[in-house]
Design a protein that fits this description.
- This protein is an alpha+beta fold.
- 18% of the residues lie in helices and 33% in strands.
- The protein has one helix and six strands.
- The strands form two sheets. The chain has a three-stranded antiparallel β-sheet, with no helix packed on it. It has a three-stranded antiparallel β-sheet with strand order 2-5-4, with no helix packed on it.
- The model has no long low-confidence stretch (mean pLDDT 90).
């Protein structure tokens, strides 16, 4: 996505459009701009957790914004993805965990 440039005879307006587009297009094109926060996702140990990321496009990355230990354990989990084997990266994120935890995830 990029900012539209409108044809005009006004040189100043044309200059400003070009300058704004050069500055803002990299920001607008960033996958972070159209990312999603997924809150309180429960990840269960011992099984791949398939999560709908709601992006409507291929997932480019993810990171945890919060991790809550399960009530029966004060351990923090080791969490890793299974995206290399994911057949639907346009729809889902696959996460594995060493302990059952509740997490908030930012996907982009």
């Amino acid at each position: 996505m990029s900012l539209p440039i409108y044809k005009t005879d006004l040189m100043e307006f044309s200059f400003f459009q070009t300058a704004w587009a050069q500055q803002l297009n990299p920001v607008v094109a960033s996958p972070f701009v159209n990312g999603n926060f997924l809150k309180q996702i429960t990840l269960t140990a011992g099984t791949p957790n398939v999560i709908n990321h709601l992006l409507g496009r291929n997932l480019q990355g993810w990171f945890l914004t919060r991790q809550r230990p399960s009530t029966d354990s004060l351990h923090f989990a080791s969490i890793y993805d299974g995206q290399d084997k994911n057949t639907t990266p346009n729809l889902t994120l696959i996460l594995n965990t060493s302990f059952t935890v509740s997490v908030d995830i930012f996907v982009f």
